[in-house]
Here is the input.
Amino acid sequence: MRTHPHGGGQENIMDNENSLLRLKTIEGHLKGIIRMVGEDAYCIDVIRQIQAVEAALKKVSGLILDNHLNSCVVTAVKGEDKEERQRVLNEILEIFETASEV
Amino acid sequence: MRTHPHGGGQENIMDNENSLLRLKTIEGHLKGIIRMVGEDAYCIDVIRQIQAVEAALKKVSGLILDNHLNSCVVTAVKGEDKEERQRVLNEILEIFETASEV
Amino acid sequence: MRTHPHGGGQENIMDNENSLLRLKTIEGHLKGIIRMVGEDAYCIDVIRQIQAVEAALKKVSGLILDNHLNSCVVTAVKGEDKEERQRVLNEILEIFETASEV
Amino acid sequence: MRTHPHGGGQENIMDNENSLLRLKTIEGHLKGIIRMVGEDAYCIDVIRQIQAVEAALKKVSGLILDNHLNSCVVTAVKGEDKEERQRVLNEILEIFETASEV
Here is the structure.
């Protein structure tokens, strides 16, 4: 697993905690949906809950991207390594394109 | 909780099992993401995994909608209750509009 | 070109007019974007305008789907032709799945 | 209108031409959809064409963002103006969040 190259100062740790907390809330939400399906809940209610989980996941992605832009991206762009810079910018483009699809 | 008004024949039960299985796989995937964030994994890798979970959730919604269209919607549209029919059709429109957003 | 099998009463004609009007407004919006790009406008401003056009297109799709559900879908589901019913329901599922992606 | 601060070298002009060409193709596509609605085409066919236009617009946004990341963003991040850098990074986040919705 690639770990996070950026500094990991206090602010960064707080952002990480915030993302973790949100993801755990989403996990609870998902467990609730699994229970609903197990109890044969009304289809549309299940779909609505799934869509709410998707919206919550997008919020987390936004948080993580914000953190990433202000740390790794700044470091890579300011750095001397052109390939690394290109790689980091291409990653942004790639997740933007996937965000447009999911 | 509204439970599912449609018949619940063998085919319907199989679809339900399929959705449940997929949701449990997604739960495992989400747990993996929580672990990644806890271990300070690289931001972009986390976002990619979150986007994969979103795509998997959309697949489940599609499955559930397919089932719903072929059971509840058919029943409601064939039925005599105009308000019920309207309600069921409006629900389809509503989840389509939310699907366009999330 | 397949034309529209549903009745085409007054309400339907009004909905059609509404969709046409919105699409023509979107065409004007798109022409404005083409002008912006021709004048080398700031990238992010162009992307924002493109995203606004996408949102407006989704609104039109919603309008057309609403109309479709309350006419063609009702006719097909109430009808005797099982294949036709299946076809119409599959179309709904298909555009839902595409809506989740675009 | 804000014009484009980046250099405008040969490569950039080519990218701009590419975006323009694609947008004009999309305009033609949209005109075709307007014609379809005017001729009362089948709803689902119209929705499919609208979804195709949305997908094409997303492609253009991706092209423009690619260009933007490799010009304006690099310039702003390497520059001394912290506010400008923040502004440029926030814009990326903002269009990512909108892309997740439309």
